[in-house]
Each structure stands twice: as structure tokens, then as C-alpha cells.
């Protein structure tokens, strides 16, 4: 019997260089839901995202995805689960010596048995979707940050995952390009019953993207709720966080 929630985060604790980053974080995410993690810079949002994706192991606690404890899973279970995941890193992390086309094709070549004809069909479809078809033969270096993020979104979507992780997808983008990335994420959500965890400091983007929001402050969950519940939360601390005047302290 599978757990009620598609993703369960239970009592996650994580330290770095003797500094406590996350202190007993717990949350649940329903299948098909977009959960936005929001909070002051440096409060552990990206660390939590990477723990949820299995990139970092927690020092305490566990993450269960579709009934699988990802830190106790077998190599086969973990590999099969990762085939269903897409991840957009904050710095995009495109492969420098591969052109745009090959960056997007790479997960298909690594994780599937598709021939090059079928790979080309999928890659071209995504190149068109994110609006970078004309750049397919270029290496990442000359591309603008906005174009790199579009390519990163395409690569995250290429395996048609049912779990997506986005780390600051609109960071360092102007309003126009942030809106474009937001549109691409919405398009991907509409195509499949995708469960997404999104880390952002962009409040407008958070409000436009979230089904629910998880607010973190000093390594702890301080609020979970719908956009409307967060907007009108009576706690002054929550209002400080969403207004951007709350800073994450050096200690928890």
C-alpha cells in the first residue's frame, strides 16, 4: 500500500560546517501539485530541494517518493525513480562542450534505448516548445542566461518526468524572461499530471505558480498553505517574509 502523499518529507535535518541549515523540516506534497518553497535568502531552500531530489542525503529524517524511501532504495529503484525526475539547477549546469541539441538529447541517450530518429523527434519538439530551435547547434557559452534557462527547462522535460524540481528558475532574469520561464513551467504542468517542487525568491512567480507554498525561516517551516492563505496570513513574521524585509540569520 502506497502512502497517501506522493512526496513525504519527514523531519529533515542538515548541517554544513557545523552550521545547522535545516532543523526538522516536514511536509507532504500531493500528486500533481506544485509546491513552492519560499523564504529569505540563505534559509536552506535549495538544500531542501536537493535533499528531496536525492542529490544530498539528509543527516536525519527521510524523503519518501511514491512509497520509496530514496535514501534506503536499491540502486535499481533509485535509477528507475530518477528516470521519472527532471531537475533545473539554479546555474542551469548545461554541459559546456555539448551544443544545445546534444544537451537536451543527453538524458534520452543515457536513460533510454531510443534510436537517434526518435531522439531527434523528441528534441526538436522541445526545442520548438521552449523557442530555441535556431540555437540548437550552438554551445551554451554564447547564450544569454534566459536562453540557457530555456534549454535547461527542455532538458528537464525531455524524459517526460512526473516529478520536476526547479531551483530558482527565474533568478537573475528580467520580468519578460521570467514570465517566459513561468509560461514554460505551466505548459509542462498542463501536459502531464506532474508533481513539482519549486524554490524561488520571486514572490510574483511564486503566486502565479504555486498550488501551495511552504515558507521556511531559519531552517524551520513557519507556514504551509494556499497562495491566498499565505497572502492573508495573520502572523507578522509571515508578512515580513513575503514582503522581503525578513533576512535569514546566521544561526538557527
Segments where pLDDT lies below 50 for 5+ residues?
none
Number of E strands: 10
N-to-C terminal Cα separation, in Å?
37 Å
Which word captures the global form? globular
Proportion of helical residues: 25-40%
User: How would a crystallographer describe the biggest sheet?
Assistant: 6 strands, mixed
Strand residue percentage: 15-25%
Instruction: Report mean pLDDT, rounded to a whole number.
Output: 88
Order of helices and strands: EEEHEEHEHHHEHEHEEHH
Based on secondary structure, the structural category is alpha/beta
**Radius of gyration of CA atoms, rounded to a whole number:** 18 Å
**Total helical elements:** 9
**Which sequence of strands runs across the widest sheet?**
6-7-8-3-9-10
List keywords for this structure.
252 residues; alpha/beta; six-stranded mixed sheet; four-stranded antiparallel sheet; 10 strands; globular
Folded structure, characterized:
- With 252 residues, the chain is of the alpha/beta class.
- It has nine helices and ten strands.
- The chain has helices at residues 45-52, 75-82, 100-111, 116-130, 145-157, 175-191, 203-209, 227-231, 236-243; strands at residues 7-16, 19-29, 34-38, 60-65, 68-69, 85-88, 163-167, 195-199, 212-217, 220-225.
- A six-stranded mixed β-sheet has the order 6-7-8-3-9-10, sandwiched between helices. A four-stranded antiparallel β-sheet has the order 2-1-4-5, covered by helices on one side.
- The protein is globular, with a radius of gyration of 18 Å.
- The termini are far apart.
- The mean pLDDT is 88.
Amino acid at each position: 500500500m502506497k502512502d497517501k502523499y506522493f512526496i513525504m518529507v519527514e523531519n529533515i535535518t542538515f548541517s554544513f560546517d557545523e552550521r545547522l541549515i535545516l532543523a526538522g523540516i516536514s511536509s507532504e506534497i500531493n500528486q500533481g501539485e506544485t509546491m513552492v518553497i519560499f523564504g529569505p535568502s540563505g534559509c536552506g531552500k535549495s538544500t531542501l530541494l536537493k535533499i528531496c531530489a536525492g542529490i544530498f542525503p539528509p543527516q536525519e529524517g527521510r524523503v519518501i517518493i511514491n512509497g520509496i524511501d530514496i535514501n534506503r532504495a536499491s540502486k535499481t529503484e533509485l535509477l528507475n525513480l530518477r528516470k521519472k525526475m527532471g531537475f533545473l539547477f539554479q546555474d542551469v549546469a548545461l554541459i559546456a562542450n555539448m551544443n544545445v541539441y546534444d544537451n537536451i538529447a543527453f538524458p534520452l541517450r543515457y536513460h533510454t534505448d531510443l534510436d537517434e530518429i526518435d531522439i531527434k523527434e523528441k528534441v526538436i519538439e522541445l526545442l520548438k516548445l521552449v523557442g530555441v530551435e535556431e540555437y540548437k547547434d550552438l554551445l551554451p557559452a554564447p547564450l544569454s542566461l534566459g536562453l540557457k534557462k530555456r534549454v535547461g527547462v527542455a532538458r528537464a522535460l525531455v524524459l517526460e518526468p512526473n516529478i520536476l524540481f526547479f531551483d530558482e528558475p527565474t533568478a537573475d532574469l528580467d520580468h519578460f524572461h521570467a514570465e517566459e520561464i513561468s509560461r514554460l513551467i505551466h505548459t509542462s504542468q498542463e501536459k502531464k499530471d506532474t508533481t513539482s517542487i519549486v524554490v524561488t525568491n520571486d514572490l510574483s512567480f511564486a503566486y502565479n505558480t504555486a498550488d501551495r507554498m511552504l515558507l521556511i525561516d531559519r531552517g524551520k517551516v513557519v507556514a504551509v498553505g494556499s497562495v491566498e492563505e499565505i497572502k492573508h496570513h495573520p502572523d507578522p513574521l509571515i508578512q515580513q517574509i513575503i514582503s522581503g524585509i525578513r533576512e535569514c540569520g546566521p544561526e538557527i
